[in-house]
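So, can you check this record?

>
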Amino acid sequence: MLLALAFAGGSSAAWAQDKGSLDPKPLPPLANPNDPKLGAKELFARKLLPANMPTQSIGTYAKGCLAGAEQMPLNGETWQVMRLSRNRYWGHPDMIALLKRLAAKAHKDAGWPGILVGDIGQPRGGPALTGHASHQIGLDADIWLTPMPDRKLSREEREETSATMMVRDDRLDIDPKVFTPGHLLVIRDAAQEPAVQRIFVNAAIKKALCREAKGDRSWLSKIRPWWGHDYHFHIRIRCPAGSTKCESQPENKEGEACSAADLAYWFKDDVIHPKPSPEPAEPRRGPTLAQLPAECRKVLAAPAAKQ
């Protein structure tokens, strides 16, 4: 059952702490959907169900689309999906299967009741109206760093509960009151999945993982500092077999990347505390349909899969 419509309006960045809507409204019809200057995000955001096509991840993580998406079930024994109004709980079947495995491992290894799943992707992938520049081909997923409660969340809680900030106020390290050994175990479990190529976290979280990891540390090479990951971590998997039009990123070659030199950039004062630009930010236009792989036209035009 489709529980959400495309969400009109909202923040320019759909991070884990941004609230959803209890009363999402359908987006208005486009005056000229064939306008070549129209952002592809306007077209993909209006597709509420996947394309009835064989599964294919097409293009790159930040410029592509997804045919034959699978829905992450909204509830499982060891997971719950958050921010249902975004309708971004669709992904490649390999990603959906991985999230289910990770949820079970988080329960077993870290003792969490389960995981809270944030954005995966839109029903047909593609660029979104708000938030991520990536998450376009069904191979990215956000996992909240807040453990799932030992009960079923209400719809209101799923839309309005904020994720927990894991980083100290000075941005130089994790907050030990909330970041626990269990967090390390869950991130490690995700990184040890063979299909996972990268995991994005705040630099302070990477620093803590480097400090605390014991035994086999090879998984640390997949952990990458990146902006905006104070409340959640972002899993990215390689292009699956059969997705011949998918383009993976280069493989990791730099080892653990745990030295002071490796992390120095992320702890520079002007990176931690950037000065606001004197000019207002330009709205992110995103690619037009013509700038996406040609196969994405077929994905948009395909009939909706039956649910």
Q: What stands out?
A: Confidence is low (pLDDT under 50) at residues 1-14. The longest helix spans residues 93-110. The two ends are 7 Å apart (CA to CA).
